[in-house]
Design a protein that fits this description.
The protein contains 3 helices and 7 strands, in the order αββββαβββα. It is of the alpha+beta class and 107 residues long.
């Protein structure tokens, strides 16, 4: 499965190009490890480096950057890789994603 659809990639690049330092864009895509830890709620993408920005959840939830090249080449086991959540609703802010994640983690 491709990590991003063409439409998602276009929107994330647009968000990156329009950034004004506030990082207040909505989550465009949710990626996850289907058999373990790792969830990424991403809003921006630098097309030159293929580095995305968003809420990255490994041991703790934090805002930061992640390489889509690295994620796309990650083998999580059992022949699986990082996947895109095709049921994820669009239009949620990264802060709302943080709230959802904290509820899931029992915070």
């Amino acid at each position: 499965m491709k990590l991003l659809t063409k439409q998602q990639r276009t929107q994330m690049i647009k968000n990156h190009e329009q950034q004004d330092g506030t990082k207040k864009f909505d989550c465009v895509v949710k990626l996850f490890n289907p058999i373990g830890m790792g969830t990424w709620y991403l809003s921006e993408l630098d097309p030159k480096t293929n580095i995305a920005y968003g809420l990255c959840v490994l041991h703790e939830a934090e805002y930061g950057y992640v390489s889509l090249d690295e994620l796309s080449n990650t083998d999580v086991g059992m022949g699986l890789g990082i996947e895109r959540d095709i049921m994820w609703p669009s239009g949620l802010s990264l802060q709302e994603c943080m709230t959802i994640q904290m509820r899931r983690d029992g915070c």
